Each structure stands twice: as structure tokens, then as C-alpha cells.
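JOB MANIFEST
job_type = single_chain_structure
chain_count = 1
residues = 219
[input]
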Amino acid sequence: MADKTPPRARKRPKQSRSLFTVNAIQQACLKILRDEGADKLTTQRIADVAGVNIASLYQYFPCKEAILSDVYDAALDDLAQLARQRFTEIQARANASLREGLAAIIDMECEQLLVLQELEPTFFKEYQHNFDAHQRIDQLTQSLNNPSWETWLDDWLCKHECTGNPKLRNLLLRQTLQGNLRIAVQQHPELLASNEFRDELLNLLMAYLQATPKPTNAS
């Protein structure tokens, strides 16, 4: 079954007054989520907090979910910038050892998901696949002529003497990491903040990378 696509804005503002209105709506949405909770989030409440007429809100957004989509897009941009700033730290830990590098990656992954999940848990659970931090990070890094996240991870893993087919090994490692994090978001989001969960996920990945392959039976 195809992933659900969230509602989006009716149109994008071009004039300064329109930009101000849309920004006020986005900031009002964030304020309500932060101060009152997702249960209080309605289009009328957003319009009231933003100080705009409800008709003006509907001129740009068909529903509150479309506003949330804009808020999530802005959050992804912020996470991409933060990942860029943290890359030196992650690279240093990655150079130290395989375990340190994976621990840094897991920490960043969990922290990114925590930011997105805590904004509006129900919305993010339903539309998680549409708000991919990796994709947004790749857009930023490649615009700066840097390698994609996937390319960097594969190149880094290939520098370590792990067992098995490197291409297949790296693919399975990425899928295992992303799969476990996706399930955590869907079923146990509180685990994202758990050091025990992160340690167990790290142990799982390390055990896979360092496993001794079974000898092939001679025919």
C-alpha cells in the first residue's frame, strides 16, 4: 500500500504581506502545539492566535494538516542545517572507531526523529515517510557539492574491515537501522530518547558487521 500524502498549501505567497500572513499562521501553529497541545489545534484557533481572519487562513491552507505540512518542512530545513553543523563532530567520532561512528549516527537519527515526532505525534505517525530528514540533508549537502548521506556512509563503512559483501552489507545495515527507527516511531516513540534503546541498536549493528561468515559447504 502506498504511503499517504499529507494535505498541502493551496498556493505559495509571493508578496510581502502574504508572506507575513503565512508566517504568522505557521508560528501560531507552533505556539499552540508548544503551549496548549495538539488537542487544541484547530484552524479557528490558529487563525485567532495568528491574528488573521479565518477566511485568510483558508485562502492558503485547506485544513490544519496542510499547515502542519509547512511546519514540518521548516523543521526539516532546520534539522538539515543542524546536521551540517554537527558533521565535524560526527566525522571525528567516525574516524575514532567503527563503534563510535555508529553511535554518533544513531544519536543523530534518534534526535532528529524526536524533534519531528514531538511536534505533533499523531500527524507524524501517519505521514512519517513524507518527512525524511535524510532527503533534506542530501538536498543541502549536494547543493554544496558534498556527497550524499548514503554515499558518505557507504564510503566510511568500506574503510573498515568488516565481513561479507560490502555493497550488500552496507545496504542491509542502512535498512536495519531505518527499519528499527521507523518501528520505534510507530509503536514505541518513547524509545527514541532511551540510551538503553540506542545502546541495544548499536550492539545489533556491530554484531552484524563483525559476524564471522559461515564457510560455504563444498559440493
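[summary]
The domain at 71-209 is CATH 1.10.357 (Tetracycline Repressor; domain 2).
The chain has a mean pLDDT of 91.
exit_status = 0
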